[in-house]
Amino acid sequence: MKSKSTVILLFIFFLLTSKNLSPQSAKTIEQRVDSVLALMTQEEKIGQLVQFTGDWDTGTHSTEPKAGKRELVSEGKIGSFLNIFGADMTRGLQKIAVEKSRLKIPLIFGLDVIHGFRTTFPVPIAEASSWEPALVEKSARMQAIEVSASGINWTFNPMVDIARDPRWGRIVEGSGEDPVLGAAMAVARVKGYQGNDLSANNTIAACLKHFAGYGGAEGGRDYNTVDFSERTFREVYLKPFKAAVDAGAATLMASFNEIGGVPSSANHQLLTKILRDEWKFDGFVVSDWNSIGELIPHGVARDLKQAAELALNAGLDMDMESNAYTKHLSELLAEGKVSGKTLDESVRRILRIKFRLGLFDDPFKYCDAEREKKTILSKEMKDAAHEVATKAIVLLKNENGFLPLNKETKKIAVIGPLANSTADPLGPWNQQGDAKDVVSVLQGIKNKCGDKAKILYEEGCSIAGKETDGFGKAIQAAKEADVVVLVVGESLDMSGEARARATLDLPGVQEELAKEIYKTGKPIVAVLMNGRPLTINWLNEHAAAILETWFLGIRTGDAIADVLFGDVNPSGKLPVTFPKYVGQVPMYYNHKNTGRPYDPKNNYTSYYADYDNSPLYPFGYGLSYTKFVYDDLKLSSKKISKTESLKISIEVKNNGSYDGEEVVQLYIRDLVGSVTRPVKELKSFQKIFLKKDETKKVEFTLTDEDLKFYNLDMNFVSEPGMFKVFVGTNSVECLEDEFELIN
Ligand code: GLC
């Protein structure tokens, strides 16, 4: 016989959580969370902290839970699944949770929607190349609309890791080397995924990953040791996470790596002191795949039980796939090694997000097979992917205005191992993207030219193989053509997770193929398809033009053809530095000056004696078919106090023969500080459209907040002194001026 108080509590619970009670009239979410928590057994509480994957072996577009998992759901022992999607599949599991389990707590379904679900958008580093937060927000919005129609209410994105080492394969998943650009992109994606109402059926919870410092892996080797000063950690790697937490991100994912000896999954300083005490984050943290279990090989846990103890006490709320919580939390609670209060706090955070998602009000609102059919791969989705792709393309070289190609060109040879690929343009982490939906570069050019031009195609070689037997036909095609479009780069699985490379050269014999094509004397337009900066020195010397296209997703070919033939004037800018040699890495624009800055006239300075020390292409670099001229940099004052703001203006003129967009970039340099400061720091950027001959005055405002850094005592302050201001088209070509900050 249930005690009287339990009956009353159950009644209150159902009153508060019943779906016909509008959330607005119901008590606050916190009270609803407390009501549920008060009814939960310890076992049910532990169940909320457990996440299991679907069974990929089913190989279909909708995965099944593994054997025995449905029973655990009915017993309230699982709180979440990942890699299970499909309106019907998720509905079936949700039904078990909310109809068979004792307390009917809904499941939350997570999935890696990194750049699309079924409609594949450009990879994140490509989207970052647009320098258009509004466009990136739109991309995330469309991705959320599509995947939420398939039962998913949580994506493990945006990846917010700053990457300064292109050997690291996951550079493709992020927004590059700069914390300000990275923060803008992370915030845009959080807004896009979560929208204005997280309880809507087409918004999903974002997940900032990988918290934190993952991109700082030594040697660019994935999962490797990370060890840098707290100042660098906070100013570079944490800055975008803080911005995205402030933008309301619902969840974070702990990273695999250690930071200075402490793995993130057991890092109380990171997961509790910084994230919760300092930043006041009230969502939940999920581990990365088995990252709790990996505390054992890290050498901080002797077994899975100790790993569970360290993780939960550090503030890691949900266990992805390690079984540590499901197996050991009961014992740890009984032994007092984990407190009931700690357990309750983690459960509360997860219930809070489930309430905010509206899952208690309507657990099935994401499981609508009709909406799924209408939404997936819709024309609107594909058109959005096409729009984003055209804006992500970076023009790296255009000798004598070789591009755009004349639409009357009679014979075009499209050559290269990626020219007709429909799988590689999907890029890594393409989720349910399907090569059969992709427009290849070759197809895109054919779509553009129709029968007006003769299109010759030869693969020439494979991406990574050593065979050169395809060279002959490729050379023949080049000889017959007026121009060669050479599509080279990396396969989709040469970047992404666990895909570090020790070189940055074009793989295989692709450069050899380019050299043979070059001997024919026909002009080469190189189209790069890659997940990281590549050391393409030879192409930079010999190609007439070079487009950086990354992996552009479902409409790759059409977007590239739009740019090749001038229907779109490329406007992308690099979010990462391209080194000339892998030996220069790590190489990034916002570096320190050192006591012996490089001076070509002085041997005893910081440089490489054997090669040129400049980058191949600097951070923020990207050309246009038109010419933008910067002039008349003006500062509102040469001296400001900490309470004043500084207005900066510059005239930008479109001096060429095409309308176009330009990313105007604002950098500063703090010349003297209580600690050393970078030689440049991006502080703001504006992407503007200028018609031919049009001039615009672009204005920025700097405040004291923009000048702050962690000083000698690790206080986040600005310091009086001289500053330089740089405004320009990339991190190297700028007009400059200076001002003084006084107390
Ligand atoms: C992976 C990745 C992470 C991803 C997770 C779930 O190992 O590190 O980015 O979200 O597992 O697939």
Which short descriptors sum up this protein?
743 residues, alpha/beta, Rossmann fold, Immunoglobulin-like, six-stranded mixed sheet, 21 helices
The CATH topology of the domain at 392-584 is: Rossmann fold
CATH domain class of the domain at 392-584:
Alpha Beta
> Measured on Cα atoms, how large is the radius of gyration?
27 Å
**What sort of overall outline do the alpha carbons produce when their principal axes are compared?**
globular
- Unreliable spans are 16-26
On the 0 to 100 scale, the average pLDDT is 95
Biggest β-sheet description? 6 strands, mixed
Query: What molecules are bound to this protein?
Result: alpha-D-glucopyranose
CATH architecture of the domain at 392-584: 3-Layer(aba) Sandwich
Distance between the termini: 72 Å
Distinct helical segment count: 21
Q: How would you name the CATH homologous superfamily of the domain at 392-584?
A: Glycoside hydrolase family 3 C-terminal domain
How would you classify the helix and strand content by structural class?
Answer: alpha/beta
Strand content: 15-25%
Number of strands: 27
Helix coverage percent: 25-40%
What would you say this structure looks like, in words?
The chain is of the alpha/beta class. Among the domains are: 392-584, 3-Layer(aba) Sandwich (Rossmann fold), CATH 3.40.50; 628-742, Sandwich (Immunoglobulin-like), CATH 2.60.40.10. The chain has 21 helices and 27 strands. Strands 1, 2, 3, 4, 5 and 11 form a six-stranded mixed β-sheet that branches. It has a six-stranded mixed β-sheet with strand order 12-17-16-15-13-14, sandwiched between helices. α17 links the parallel β13 and β14. α1 packs antiparallel against α2, α12 crosses α13 (324-334) and α17 packs across α21. It is globular and about 75 Å long. The protein starts with a helix and ends with a strand. Alpha-D-glucopyranose binds at residues 82, 112, 156, 209, 288-289, 497.
